[in-house]
Amino acid sequence: MINPYIQYMYSYPHKTAYRPMSGVSLWDYKDKLKGPGHGLYLHIPFCQGKCGYCNLFSVTGANREAMERYLEVVWRQAEQYAGILKSQGSSFSSVTIGGGTPLCLQEAQLDQVFSRIESWFTLESGRDVVIETAPNQTDRGKLKILKDAGVTRVSMGIQSFCQEELAALRRGHSPDQARKALDLLLSFGFACVNLDFIYGIPGQDTASLIRSLKEAVAYSPQEIFLYPLYIKHGAGLEREGMEPEPQKAYEQYQEASKFLKSKGFCQDSMRRFVYRDGARREFSDCGFSTSLALGCGGRSYVGNLHFCTPYAITAHQCKKELLAYQETKDFTQIRHGIRLSQDEEKRRYVIRHVLIRPGVKEEWYQERFKSRILEDFPQIARWMEEGFAAREEGNYLVLTDKGMGLSDYLGPQLISKAVLEAMREWEENHGFKTTAYDPLQRKPEKL
Ligand code: SF4
């Protein structure tokens, strides 16, 4: 039996493959920021406590003044970016505020976030405005601010409705706090509410996972995301010696996927279940539009230039990066990132489309890259032979249900050797035993 949970490929290349840069200015990429349709991301890196599995850029213990200081730097960065954006007539069709826990901000600060974004950036009408939250930080006053600011999608990390499982994850809320926050959230009538859950938690069994999902479904959210528990280098649970149980997690995943589909949810990827009663997801060129990030830990994608502050997980590393961010004078100078070659762009395209429904048409790939997808990626042809991928209705190449459940095993086979080496080097330089997966050393196995 294989390990289905090698690596989550939500964005390629992984940040650990980024390296220091010099002599690169965002002004050199201003053409990529021209006109409409861009995405804006703001990272709020504050959390009440650090969850045991967290591998996101977040710090704890920040008081009101510390958050104030951070936001002042964010607005300095916004002002510098705005100079470039104005020269290009740029406008944004989406704004995402993530973290951390953005609702850790005080009400006045949250209010300021929305008004400052509007003052520095041109936002398009009908824009998506997305924010993440957590049960303990969700109250009526803050939700009213979100509603008045035109937020269209709120994502809440519930993870489980079982107290023992929340404790095992070192999550700071109780099932009752989650229920109260959800009742409140749903009373505001946001266009989309998304709930996150985790499976593969030590002590969790399939029955308990399904109980949590049953309760979630009763709230009628528009989306449910199911995440397998990963314990990354530097995460608290790694230091505690907690070991994931991949085979148990895989069995739980299969039952959970079956359950959500039986309740009218469509599965778009290994993680994303959308309530739309059998309708197909429309194709979108995801991951190939420009996204500009504000704040420490947020990642920008501008043409083939991807950049962000250096990858950090532990409290010490995050605090160090936060300090460096706050001391930055010129944000238009890019100091850490990667420039994708065409080969890497192809890999990113395939990862962003073949692992997600509806998939990609061969002719679209050919039009974009002037080569054939199955020749560039013979592993996809192999997956088709193995039953992991198929040409589906409308001539889309996409993972089958069986393949989708193994996305975190199949996806890493698309990583280039160069990126793999860079990820390995990062792990070694940070004193971690390497977990970087070598796609050349493995063959697809039958389950
Ligand atoms: S998992 Fe989310 S809520 Fe928990 S520490 Fe990380 S960013 Fe904060």
Structural summary, described in words:
The protein has 447 residues and is of the alpha/beta class. It has two domains: 15-275, TIM Barrel (Alpha-Beta Barrel); 341-447, Orthogonal Bundle (Arc Repressor Mutant, subunit A), CATH 1.10.10.920. Helix content is 38%, strand content 21%. The chain is built from 16 helices and 18 strands. A nine-stranded mixed β-sheet has the order 10-11-9-8-7-6-5-2-12. Helix 1 (64-88) packs parallel to helix 2. The longest helix has 25 residues, at 64-88. The radius of gyration is 21 Å and the shape is globular. Residues 439-447 have low confidence and may be disordered. Residues 47, 50-51, 54, 56, 58, 99-101, 134, 157 line the site of iron/sulfur cluster.
